[in-house]
Write a structure and sequence with these properties.
With 67 residues, this protein is mainly α. Helices cover 67% and strands 0% of the residues. It has helices at residues 2-20, 32-44, 49-61. The chain binds flavin-adenine dinucleotide.
Length: 67
């Protein structure tokens, strides 16, 4: 749950910063796109965002809906 929420918040903040910087946000002059790519990576490894939600749902409800 901590990993899922942490990564979700981090990428939300990174996307917001990219927006704040406007067109400069997609240039190499600022490193925000590099951070965004790193966060896109973390969404996948050590359990994807969706799989973590399924695991949390299983723990809370006892129902395995991934089958
Ligand atoms: C930079 C990086 C480093 C990595 N390092 C390691 C490492 O050191 N050791 C290691 O063992 N692995 C490593 N991995 C692999 C990583 O753990 C897997 O990529 C990850 O578990 C996702 O598996 P997959 O790529 O096979 O995607 P898949 O399992 O094919 O999933 C594809 C998509 O489908 C979704 N999905 C899958 N099953 C379901 C379902 N039942 N219900 C709903 N949605 C579903 C997933 O959430 C995902 O969005 C690394 C990956 C990356 C990107």
């Amino acid at each position: 749950m901590a990993k899922r929420n942490n990564v979700d918040k981090a990428i939300t903040v990174a996307r917001e910063v990219r927006q704040v910087l406007g067109s400069m946000g997609i240039t190499g002059e600022y490193s925000i796109m590099r951070h965004m790519m790193n966060f896109e990576n973390v969404i996948t490894y050590e359990g994807t965002h969706d799989i973590h939600l399924l695991i949390t749902g299983l723990d809370v409800t006892g129902l395995n809906v991934s089958k």
